[in-house]
Design brief:
The complex is a heterodimer of chains A (521) and B (526).
Chain A (H helix, E strand, L loop, with lengths): L1 H11 L15 H9 L6 H19 L9 E7 L4 E6 L6 H9 L26 E9 L5 E8 H9 L7 H8 E7 L10 E9 L10 H11 L11 H10 L7 E4 L13 E5 L2 E4 L2 E8 L5 E9 L14 E6 L2 E3 L19 E6 L17 H49 L5 H23 L5 H19 L12 H15 L4 H16 L5
Parallel strand pairs in A: 1-7, 12-14
Antiparallel strand pairs in A: 1-2, 2-6, 3-4, 3-6, 4-5, 8-9, 10-11, 11-14, 12-13
Helix pairs in contact in A: 5-6, 9-10, 9-11, 10-11, 10-12, 12-13
Chain B lengths: L4 E6 L9 H10 L7 E6 L13 E6 L5 H14 L7 E5 H5 L1 H5 L8 E2 L8 H4 L27 H4 L12 E4 L2 E2 L10 H4 L4 E2 L3 H12 L4 E4 L10 H10 L7 E4 L2 E5 L2 E3 L5 H4 L4 H6 L7 E4 L6 H13 L4 E8 L5 H18 L2 E8 L17 H12 L9 H8 L3 H9 L2 H5 L1 H6 L3 H13 L2 H12 L16 H7 L8 H14 L23
Parallel strand pairs in B: 1-2, 1-3, 3-4, 4-5, 6-9, 9-12, 13-14, 14-15
Antiparallel strand pairs in B: 7-8, 10-11
Helix pairs in contact in B: 12-13, 13-16, 14-16
Classes of the chains: A alpha+beta (521), B alpha/beta (526).
Chain lengths: 521, 526
C-alpha cells in the first residue's frame, strides 16, 4: 500500500495552477492587529512615535517649512482618560486621509529610508481604548480631516456571531469620517497629524496614562536626544550621523518635565545611594557578511560594579533600527558568557544594513543570513565586554587587598608609636608590617593593566612605607638571645592572630610581664 | 455577583469619629447590599490582607494635613494590588479638598480619586466603566451610596486595635452644605449649597433595626439653623426621644443619659435673630451647644446668642474659636475674655476650644497666619496642652493662663516655653529668681527688639535656639535669648511638680473624650 500511494501521486502528474475564487480575509485579522501584535502595551507609543518621526523626516526631506521646532507632543488628560500624540511632520492630505488610514497592511514606506514597513502599527492603540481618532491637516489643505475607529463597536462585532462580514465590512461598520473647515479649527496648527486615544483601558499602574512610565519607556526606545549635560552626547551623535542615522527628534510630554531625553548621564545610580561615572565612550563598528558596515554603536566605559537596575532603564547593550529600539535591554543577553553581564554594560548598537529588517513586533530582527552573521559579531563583542567586567572586578579585588594591607600597617604603626613598647614586641610589629608591605607590593604589581590605578596604588604604598620607616619601630635583629628569639616567635603568634592590634599588644605585654615577674601573676 | 472581596482602609492617623463614608460603602457591599465579604482595616498593621486577592479596595481620607499618613496608606495598597490600581478608590475629605494634589501623583495612576459625595448611582459616582466590565459597573440606577444606612458592624473588626472616641451614636445629617462661604472652611468645596438631607427618623430607625440602639445622636450639619425646616428637624429629634433627661436602657447595661450634638457648631448670626431657635434647641437634650466664635466681628451676635441660651436654660455651652487666620492674638484674647465675662455674669460655663487655622488644601500643619508667628503658635500649643485644648472657664485660671489683658497675653506668648509649661515652678518656686531676671531684661526691650526676638525664635525649632545668638543684632536680644534654651533639668522640674500637684488637685476641667474637639493639633511640633 505504501508504494501504491507514492506511485499514485506521481501518476497524477498535475500542473499547479493559481486559485481563483474569493480568498477570505476575516474580521478577526483586525483583532490581531489591534490588540495582539505587541507584547508590551507601551509599544503602542513606540508605533505612534515612529510614524510621527517618519512624518517629520519626510517633511524635512521635502523641504517643508516648520513653524515650530520639528517635534512630537504627547498630551495626557487623566480626567477624560485620553492621550494625544501630535507631530508637525508631513501629515496626510485630505484626499488620501481615509484610504491610507483605513488600509490594513501595505505601507508605502517599505523600501524607503523611513522606519515604518508594514502599515499596521497605527491600529495598535485600538485594542487599548474605546475610541481611536486620527486627525490631520497637510500643507495647503483647507480642512482638518478626522477619522474615528469605534473600539467599543469593534469589540461588540468581534463577539457577535451573527456578524458575517469580512475585514472590509467590519472596518466600514466601525469607522466614521468627518472634516472641519480650517476656519472652525483655528486652535489647530497649520500642518499636523495627531492620534487621540479616548477612554484608555486601565492597565497595571495605568501605564498608558502614566506620564512617568511612558517617559521612562520613550527615553529608552524613542529617537530622542541625549541630555545636554552628558559629556559624550555630541561625540556619539556625530558618530551616528556620520553613519547615516537621522537627527534625534524632540518629544515633549505635558508633565512639566519638558523634553524626553535618553537616560544616560555622566553620573548614574547603580543602586540606592551609590553612583558610578561614565569615564569615556568607545565607538563600535560591526562588519556585515558583504564586507560593508552592518552596524555601528557605542559603549560606555565605567566601573562595571554590577547589573544596573531595570527601573532606571539604562543597563544593557541595546539594538536599534532607525534609531528606535528593537526588543529590550536583554536582546543580546544570550551572547554573553553569563547572560547577567548584559545588564552591567551601557551601550547601543544601531543596525544600518538595509538587508537586516526588524520583525513585525519589533522585538527582534527578521531571521536571515545577514543577521546571523551580525549576531556572530555581537557574540565576539559580548565576550570582550565580559572580559572587561572580569578584569575590572579583579582589579577591584586587588585594590581592596592592597588597601586592607596598608590599613593594617597603619593600625600597627599607630598602636606601636603611641606607647613605648619593649623591643621584642616592636620587632614582631615591624616584621608583621614588613610582610604586609611585601604582600601589598606583590598585589600592586598585578595591577599593571590599569596604568593610572597602578601608579596611584604604588604612590600610596610608598607613602605607607615611608610612614613605617619613620615610625621608629625597630627590629632587634641579631641582638636577641635564644630565649628572646623563642619569645619573639611566641609573641608573633599572638599578634598575628589578633583581630585588633591593640588587644594583641595588651595580651603580649601581659605575657611579657608574667615571664618577667612570675610571682605577680 | 456576591462574595467579592472588598477591603476598606482608613489610614493610620488618630481620629475621633468612625469613617462614615466607609461605613456606607460597607453597607453597599455587605450583607444588606451586594453580599460581598467586607474587611475593614486601619493603618497597615493587619498583615492578613496579603492573603486575599481583593476585588476592590476603598481608602478614605480625612484631614488634608495628614497627607503623609494618607500617602503611606495609598502606597501600601498600590503594592498590595501589585500595581493593579484600577481596583483602588480613594475618597473622603482630603481627597476632595486636595483633589489635584492626589491626581498629580504619577505613582498612583489608575487609582480613582473621588471628589465630593457618592450621591449619584454607585456606578456613576465611582466612575465605573461598563466597557471594561468592572465590578458592578451596571449599577447605574441603584440607591446612591451616600444614602445608605451605615454599616456599624465593620467597627467591630477594629475592636482590638482602635476604639473611636465617638462610636455609640447615630451619625446623621439633617441638612448638608452651608449658606455661607467662609474662606477658612472646606464645606463650600466639599458639600456646596445648603439643602435638606433625608429624614433622620428613617435613618435612625434603620440603624437601630440593623445595628441596635445607640446612645447619642450626632448630627454633623454644617449650619442646621439655616435650614428652612429647622423646626421640623428639632421636632423629629424630639419625636425620636432625644428630650432633656432622656435615658437609654439596654439589656444588661445600666441606663445612660442620651445627648444630641450638632458637632460642627451652630451659627450665632442666625441664632441671635429670634429666640425661637434656642427655645427649640432647649427642647432636645443638646449637650453641649456649640456656638462658633470665629472672629471679633461677630461679637454682638455671639454675645446675644449666649445670653439667649442662658435665658432658655441652655447652660452647657461649648465654643469653637478660630485663630491663626486673619485675626491677631489680641482678637483671640478678647474673644476668650468675653466668655469669661459671660461666665461670671450669667453663672454659666462656656468651654472654649481655640482651633488653629490651616488652609484646607495644605498637606501639613505649618501654616502661620499673617498676625501670628511660629513661636506664638507654639506658646498657644503649650498653654492648651495642659488643658487638652480647652480654655478654662474659671476667671482665676484663665487670667493665670492667658494674662489679665491682651498686652499681657502677647507678652505671655513670647515667654520661653518651659516657663509656660512649668508656670508654677518659675512663678512661685525654685525657678522664681531666673524668671525675675528674665522679666527684668524683657521689660527693657524696645518694641523693635521684641519684634526681632519674636522673628528669631520663630525662625527655628527649640533645638536651634543656640544658633540664634550669632544672628541677633542687639546685645539685649542676645542676652535674653539664653533664657529660651530649654533647661537640662526640665524632667526634675516635672517630677517635683508632679509630687506637688498630686497633693492639690489640678483645675483641669473634666470633659468626656467624645465631647472634646476633634483635633486641635496639640501633639505635634510646629
Amino acid at each position: 500500500m505504501k508504494t501504491n500511494a507514492a506511485v499514485s501521486l506521481k501518476l497524477l502528474d498535475s500542473i499547479p495552477t493559481s486559485i481563483d475564487g474569493e480568498v477570505i480575509v476575516g474580521k478577526d485579522i483586525l483583532d490581531l492587529v489591534a490588540g495582539a501584535m505587541y507584547v508590551n502595551p507601551l509599544d503602542i507609543f513606540r508605533e505612534y512615535i515612529q510614524n510621527a518621526a517618519d512624518a517629520i523626516d519626510q517633511a524635512k526631506d521635502n523641504g517643508l517649512n516648520f513653524e515650530d521646532v520639528p517635534g512630537i507632543s504627547i498630551t495626557f488628560d487623566q480626567i477624560s482618560r485620553s492621550v494625544t500624540i501630535r507631530d508637525n511632520g508631513i501629515s496626510i492630505p485630505s484626499g488620501e486621509f481615509v484610504r491610507r488610514l483605513t488600509a490594513v497592511g501595505g505601507s508605502n514606506k517599505r523600501g524607503t529610508t523611513l522606519r515604518g514597513l508594514r502599515g499596521v502599527g497605527r491600529l495598535s492603540g485600538l485594542g487599548y481604548c474605546q475610541e481611536l481618532i486620527f486627525r490631520g491637516r497637510s500643507e495647503g489643505d483647507v480642512e482638518v480631516s478626522e477619522l474615528r475607529w469605534d473600539g467599543k463597536r469593534l469589540r461588540e462585532l468581534l463577539r457577535d456571531k451573527s456578524f458575517q462580514g469580512n475585514l472590509s465590512d467590519l472596518i466600514r461598520s466601525i469607522v466614521t469620517i468627518s472634516s472641519v473647515p480650517v476656519i472652525q479649527a483655528a486652535n489647530l496648527p497649520n500642518r499636523f497629524f495627531e492620534v487621540e486615544l479616548c477612554k484608555v483601558s486601565r492597565l497595571k499602574n495605568d501605564q498608558l496614562l502614566n506620564e512617568d512610565i511612558v517617559r521612562n519607556y520613550l527615553s529608552q526606545v524613542a529617537p530622542v536626544p541625549f541630555i545636554n549635560q552628558f559629556t559624550y552626547g555630541d561625540d556619539i551623535n556625530a558618530h551616528l550621523i556620520k553613519h547615516g542615522i537621522r537627527e534625534p527628534i524632540s518629544i515633549v510630554i505635558n508633565d512639566g518635565k519638558g523634553q524626553v531625553t535618553r537616560n544616560i548621564q555622566n553620573q548614574f545610580a547603580i543602586r540606592e545611594g551609590y553612583t558610578d561615572e561614565v569615564k569615556g565612550v568607545e565607538f563600535l563598528e560591526f562588519p556585515g557578511d558583504d564586507g560593508e558596515v552592518a552596524a555601528i554603536g557605542w559603549v560606555c566605559d565605567h566601573s562595571y560594579y554590577g547589573a544596573l537596575p531595570k527601573k532606571h532603564g539604562l543597563g544593557g547593550i541595546r539594538l536599534r533600527s532607525g534609531n528606535i529600539q528593537i526588543g529590550n535591554e536583554t536582546i543580546l543577553a544570550e551572547f554573553f558568557p553569563e547572560s547577567r553581564f548584559c545588564c552591567w554594560a551601557i551601550g547601543e548598537i544601531h543596525v544600518i544594513s538595509k538587508q537586516i529588517l526588524p520583525n513585525g513586533r519589533r522585538d527582534e530582527f527578521e531571521p536571515s543570513n545577514h543577521y546571523t552573521h551580525l549576531q556572530g559579531e555581537f557574540a565576539i563583542f559580548a565576550k570582550q565586554i565580559a572580559k572587561c567586567i572580569r578584569i575590572k572586578s579583579e582589579q577591584r579585588n586587588r585594590l581592596r587587598t592592597v588597601n586592607n594591607h596598608l590599613l593594617n600597617i597603619q593600625e600597627w604603626v599607630s598602636v606601636a608609636s603611641g606607647q613605648n613598647l619593649p623591643l621584642v614586641v616592636n620587632t614582631v610589629i615591624k616584621e608583621i608590617a614588613d610582610e604586609k608591605l611585601k604582600l601589598a607590593h606583590r598585589e600592586a604589581e598585578k595591577m599593571e593593566a590599569n596604568a593610572d590605578q597602578h601608579t596611584l596604588v604604588k604612590a600610596k604604598i610608598n607613602e605607607i612605607q615611608t610612614l613605617l620607616e619613620n615610625s621608629g619601630i625597630n627590629h632587634g635583629e641579631g641582638r636577641f638571645s635564644e630565649f628572646e628569639k623563642a619569645f619573639t616567635a611566641a609573641i608573633k603568634v599572638i599578634l598575628s592572630n589578633s583581630t585588633k592590634p591593640d588587644d594583641g599588644v595588651k595580651l603580649s605585654l601581659r605575657v611579657l610581664n608574667a615571664i618577667t615577674f612570675p610571682s605577680t601573676v | 455577583m456576591a462574595n467579592k472581596n472588598i477591603l476598606l482602609v482608613e489610614p493610620g492617623y488618630k481620629n475621633k469619629y468612625p469613617p462614615l463614608g466607609l461605613m456606607k460603602i460597607a453597607a453597599y457591599h455587605g450583607p444588606y447590599g451586594k453580599k460581598d465579604n467586607v474587611k475593614f482595616i486601619k493603618g497597615m498593621t493587619d498583615q492578613s490582607v496579603w492573603q486575599t486577592n481583593w476585588d476592590r479596595i476603598y481608602i478614605t481620607t480625612l484631614f488634608s494635613f495628614e497627607w503623609k499618613e494618607i500617602s503611606k496608606a495609598i502606597d501600601y495598597i498600590v503594592s498590595l494590588v501589585n500595581g493593579n490600581t484600577s481596583k483602588v478608590f480613594v475618597g473622603g475629605i482630603a481627597a476632595s479638598l486636595m483633589h489635584e494634589k492626589f491626581l498629580a501623583e504619577a505613582r498612583w495612576r489608575g487609582v480613582r480619586i473621588i471628589r465630593g459625595l457618592l450621591s449619584e448611582a454607585p456606578a456613576i459616582s465611582l466612575q465605573l466603566d461598563d466597557f471594561e466590565g468592572e465590578l458592578y459597573s451596571d449599577d447605574r440606577d441603584g440607591t446612591p451610596i451616600e444614602d445608605l444606612v451605615p454599616d456599624y458592624s465593620i467597627l467591630d473588626q477594629l475592636k482590638e486595635q482602635y476604639q473611636y472616641p465617638v462610636h455609640d451614636a447615630y451619625f446623621a445629617y439633617a441638612s448638608r452644605g452651608c449658606i455661607r462661604k467662609c474662606h477658612f472652611c472646606g464645606v463650600p468645596k466639599l458639600e456646596g449649597d445648603q439643602r435638606d438631607a433625608q429624614s433622620i427618623t428613617a435613618l435612625v430607625k434603620a440603624i437601630e433595626a440593623r445595628h441596635g440602639p445607640k446612645r447619642d445622636l450626632m448630627l454633623m450639619d454644617n449650619n442646621v439653623v439655616a435650614s428652612a425646616n429647622y423646626k421640623e428637624i428639632i421636632a423629629e429629634i424630639r419625636d425620636l426621644g432625644f428630650v432633656p433627661g432622656a435615658k437609654l436602657s439596654r439589656p444588661g447595661r445600666s441606663p445612660v443619659l442620651r445627648r444630641v450634638d450638632f458637632n460642627q457648631g451652630v451659627d450665632a448670626r442666625i441664632l441671635c435673630k429670634d429666640e425661637m431657635y434656642l427655645k427649640e434647641m432647649s427642647t432636645i437634650c443638646i449637650k453641649p451647644l456649640r456656638i462658633a466664635f470665629d472672629h471679633l466681628g461677630v461679637k454682638k451676635p455671639y454675645e446675644t446668642a449666649i445670653r439667649m441660651s442662658h435665658n432658655v436654660g441652655l447652660h452647657d455651652l461649648s465654643n469653637y474659636m478660630l485663630y491663626n487666620f486673619k485675626d491677631t492674638p489680641s482678637d483671640l484674647y478678647e474673644r476668650m475674655r468675653l466668655n469669661i465675662k459671660l461666665n461670671e455674669e450669667l453663672g454659666i460655663r462656656i468651654f472654649s476650644f481655640p482651633m488653629r487655622f490651616q488652609p484646607t488644601d495644605q498637606p501639613n500643619r505649618d501654616h502661620v497666619g499673617d498676625h501670628w508667628s511660629k513661636h506664638q503658635l507654639r506658646s498657644m500649643q503649650v498653654i492648651l496642652q495642659a488643658t487638652h485644648g480647652i480654655v478654662s472657664g474659671s476667671p482665676e485660671f484663665f487670667m493665670e493662663a492667658f494674662g489679665n489683658s491682651s498686652e499681657e497675653f502677647e507678652q505671655l506668648l513670647l515667654l520661653p516655653h518651659h516657663y509656660i509649661f512649668n508656670r508654677v515652678w518659675y512663678k512661685d518656686l525654685d525657678g522664681k529668681a531666673e524668671f525675675e531676671e528674665y522679666k527684668g531684661i524683657f521689660n527693657t526691650l524696645s518694641n523693635e527688639a521684641r519684634q526681632e526676638l519674636k522673628q528669631l525664635l520663630s525662625s527655628t525649632t527649640p533645638k536651634g535656639i543656640p544658633s540664634l545668638f550669632d544672628r541677633a543684632t542687639s546685645q539685649k536680644v542676645k542676652s535674653i535669648l539664653q533664657f529660651y534654651i530649654p533647661p537640662k533639668n526640665e524632667e526634675d522640674i516635672w517630677s517635683a511638680m508632679k509630687k506637688r500637684n498630686s497633693k492639690n488637685q489640678s483645675a483641669i476641667p473634666h470633659i468626656p473624650e467624645d465631647e472634646l474637639v476633634e483635633d486641635a493639633g496639640l501633639a505635634e511640633i510646629i
